[in-house]
Amino acid sequence: MSEHTFARASHLSEMEAESIHILRETVAEFANPVMLYSIGKDSQVLLHLARKAFHPAPLPFPLLHVDTTWKFRDMYAFRDAFVARHGLRLIIHRNQRALAEGINPFDHGSQKYTHAMKTQALLEALAAHGFDAAFGGARRDEEKSRAKERVFSFRDRHGQWDPRRQRPELWNLFNGRVDAGESMRVFPLSNWTELDVWHYVLRERIPVVPLYFAAERPVIDRGGTLLMVDDERMRLRPGEKPELRRVRFRTLGCYPLSGAIESSATTVETVIHEMVNARQSERQGRLIDHDEEGSMELKKREGYF
């Protein structure tokens, strides 16, 4: 083993140990935790760590998927197959009022759509089940407002976040005290990077949605963003015509709001190689991050994941 390979293996083991400690600490401190499951690579890594943390017992909490109904079809297929294969408890929650009103990413814009189908839906689900801690797969390196988050991120009775009222976390000591109605978002992957995640996926052979790997897919180029036409609901603008291009996704969300990148990476190894040479942000293709100045921080203050 080369010195570099040894250092990487040691680094991943340290990150794994830290995350498992956070998972166990949360289960010990809170009465009713849940793990948010978005089906992406970070969710897969977090779920893998949780299964390791409590092996051989089953997970001591359910998974929660806040379903906008606009995820890629491959994501739904992957979710259902993975959950069934491993006998996991999965709660699927949709904002039924917003669905009845026909809220969608085309007519209502990404901001209103995200607030209704993600933020409100998440707050509904957490309140309905009385969850007092919610694990998430967010990492500090993803986006500037996420860099401000603590590992234990306090939410008030309305599920809202105030970045000025965060609790100090010294020497990995976490303050999990909450009063009735308050809750905590917990981020065991806070200190991981995108590259760490992929190296861990490689080391542990963690399955991920095939959309992360390059293949010929029907896309349109909308203002420089490559959007995949995943089903008949995609609304094309005048002059737009889907064409087959070899693309993959670095981050997955609702398909009308998730941009692909052109790529030839078809394996985890080649994805890592591509990333080492990448010069653009992982979330460059997430349109909801850029629909207004300070967008993600405003969403998080309102209760967004």
From TrEMBL:
It is an enzyme of class 2 (transferase). Keywords: ATP-binding, Nucleotide-binding, Nucleotidyltransferase, Transferase. It catalyses: sulfate + ATP + H(+) = adenosine 5'-phosphosulfate + diphosphate. Its EC number is 2.7.7.4. It comes from the Bacteria. Residues 32-259 form the Phosphoadenosine phosphosulphate reductase domain. GO terms for molecular function: ATP binding; sulfate adenylyltransferase (ATP) activity. The keyword Ubl conjugation does not apply. InterPro entries: PAPS_reduct_dom, Rossmann-like_a/b/a_fold, SO4_adenylTrfase_ssu, Sulfate_adenylyltrnsfr_sub2. It holds the Pfam family PAPS_reduct. One of its GO terms (biological process) is sulfate assimilation. Pathway: Sulfur metabolism; hydrogen sulfide biosynthesis; sulfite from sulfate: step 1/3. NCBIfam families: CysD, PRK05253.1, PRK12563.1. Belongs to the PAPS reductase family. CysD subfamily. With CysN forms the ATP sulfurylase (ATPS) that catalyzes the adenylation of sulfate producing adenosine 5'-phosphosulfate (APS) and diphosphate, the first enzymatic step in sulfur assimilation pathway. APS synthesis involves the formation of a high-energy phosphoric-sulfuric acid anhydride bond driven by GTP hydrolysis by CysN coupled to ATP hydrolysis by CysD. Heterodimer composed of CysD, the smaller subunit, and CysN. This is Sulfate adenylyltransferase subunit 2.
